[in-house]
Amino acid sequence: MSTTPQAAAEASSRTLVELQGIDVVPDSQRTAKPSDLFWPWFAANVSVFGMSYGSYLFGFSISFWQATVVALLGIVTSFMLCGIIAIAGKRGSVPTMVLSRAAFGVQGQKVPGLISWLTSIGWETSLTITATLATATVFDRLGWSHGTTTKIIACVVIAAIIVVASVLGYHTIMKLQSILTWITGAFTIGFMALTISHIDWATVSSMPSGSLASCIGALVMVMTGFGLGWINIAADWSRYQHRDASNGSIVFWNTFGGSVAPMLLVVFGLLLAYSDEDLMGAIQGDPIGALSSILPTWALLPFLLVAVLTLISGAVLGIYSSGLTLLSLGIDIPRPAAAAIDGTILTLATIYVVFFAKNFLGPFQSFLVTLGVPLAAWAGIMIADILLRRRPYDELALFDGRGRYGQFNWISIALMVIASVVGWGLVINQFSDASFNDWQGYLLEPLGLGHRGPEGWEGTWPWANLGVIVSLLIGFGGHLVANRGTVRRQETGDYATDAATSLVDGGRA
Questions:
Q1: CA–CA separation, 228 and 82 (whole Å)
Q2: What are phi and psi of 457, to 5 degrees?
Q3: How far is the C-alpha of 476 from the C-alpha of 75, rounded, in Å?
Q4: Whole-number mean pLDDT of the chain?
Q5: Which pLDDT value is given to residue 15?
Q6: Exposure check for the chain: N or C terminus, fewer CB within 10 A?
Q7: Judging by beta carbons within 10 Å of its beta carbon (0-12, 13-18, 19+), is residue 455 exposed, middle or buried?
Q8: Is residue 441 within 8 Å of residue 457, measured between CB atoms?
């Protein structure tokens, strides 16, 4: 059977998209519309893992109503910030961390790029760990093998699925996410129906209110755990949008897609956690496994399948983008090879945590806060940069330090460093099994916001983790003031750029 020239051209175009590295996406391949952004964001965030945040919020000693307001505000706000970052993808046709070269310089971008890569690796690993632990716990309840061998097999199989799916590229991932959306959404509703009887409204409503500082701390954790955890990859999917797509629509579909499931899941998780103290404690070590403990036996396998699929869905987005970030750092390898490297790191890190680490939640949350500070600074700088710009990016100059964006923007780099130093001084390590972060919080006592006694931090503000928000605001405000003139010169200046060199050096997959 012969192939028509048109069919051959379409097949070739699709292959290029699947193998797309960090180079500029041609206009012929920018066929997505804003509503298409709903599918990857919803599928990656519909995970029942979101219910476990009910237990985490309870740890801040706030009432159910306070936790609900904090959860809704933190989720929507953080994903809206992702939506703003996504606007840059439409304007520049390249991945998020390549776009940040406009604000940091072609070589200066490697500073936030390294933070971004570490953050993505951490998220992928945490999702794989959660899926592995959930598999062992469910197998245990079913009376099947649940020892070391089971965990190793689960770890390897889950990691392999994540890597293979991410290697296959944009179209495959988008199709996979649209399918997973319907499957996981339906089964998650089923889980809620089966467990709603465990909610004790009298116990939930009797929880006393907490302080303003506790609410702020809970808000920071929600923002860091949801939208801010994705913000460094937010433009990786919008780069396939039509150039004339509405900015408002891009922000809306990012926000709606990312927020709608977590809002329902976290509130339902709050109801479960506030109703059952034993369940709340179990979630600390094995979130998905603990949630499975309140299900009837016949529902365990479907629950496990859906839980693992939702975790894999989020990890696929993360490892695809972490591979792009690795390329943006100057690693000259094909994108599939970059995904394979990240997959190897993910597997080894998962094995270490599952078999050698004593606790999962403490190091995980400490990790989120520590990397969340510089990542928040980067996000503030990027959001300000996007709001300052009135013209599309010079896509070729993003790959050539001789162009309008230069090699280094030392003001942006200094802002990120300053914001991080201040931010780390306003957060504390709250976990005994993460002693590697005990150096944090050095500004709290000088500013009269708390005291570190023999039993640990005293007062309410140390637990609020103000440093994440402060870091974001320093980056945002500092860039608006200090780099306004730089952005104006970049958009109006006449810079010579060697287009051929830019495209080759850009990292074609």
A1: 7
A2: -75, 140
A3: 20
A4: 82
A5: 39
A6: N
A7: exposed
A8: yes
For 8-47, list the strands marked E by DSSP: none
Bridge partners of 456, per DSSP, are 453
Q: Contact, 237 vs 40, CB < 8 A?
A: yes
Tokens of 99: 């776009």
SS3 44: helix
What is the pLDDT, as a whole number, of residue 60? Answer: 84
How far is it, in rounded angstroms, from Cα 67 to Cα 59? 10
Residues 220 and 56: their CA atoms lie apart, in Å, by: 12
- How far, in Å, CA of 398 to CA of 240, rounded? 17
Question: What is the 3-state secondary structure of 188-200?
Answer: HHHHHHHHHHHCC
pLDDT in the model for residue 304? 77
pLDDT at 376 over 90: yes
Task: Tell me the sheet residues that pair with 452.
Answer: 457
Nearest by Cα to 41 from 78, 91, 74: 78
pLDDT tens for each residue of 193-245: 888 888 888 888 888 898 888 898 889 888 888 888 889 889 988 988 988 89
What DSSP element (H or E) covers 458? strand 456-458
* Mean of pLDDT values over 76-84: 95
Contact 323, 343 (CB under 8 A): no
Alpha helices of 33-63 — where are they, by DSSP H?
A: 38-45, 53-58
- Among 314-328, 405-419, 457-471, the range scoring the smallest mean pLDDT is 314-328
Helix (H, G, I), strand (E, B) or coil at 147: coil
Q: How far is residue 364's CA from residue 133's CA, in Å, rounded to a whole number?
A: 14
Residue 366, burial from CB neighbour count under 10 angstroms (0-12, 13-18, 19+): buried
Average of pLDDT values for 466-494?
Answer: 92
* pLDDT value at 317 more than 80: no
pLDDT-above-90 percentage for the chain: 30
Q: Is the pLDDT of residue 488 over 90?
A: yes
| Phi and psi torsions of 20, nearest 5° | -55, 125
> What whole-number distance in Å separates Cα of residue 502 and Cα of residue 509?
14
Which residue bears the tokens 């972060």?
437
* CA separation for the pair 43, 209 (Å, rounded): 34
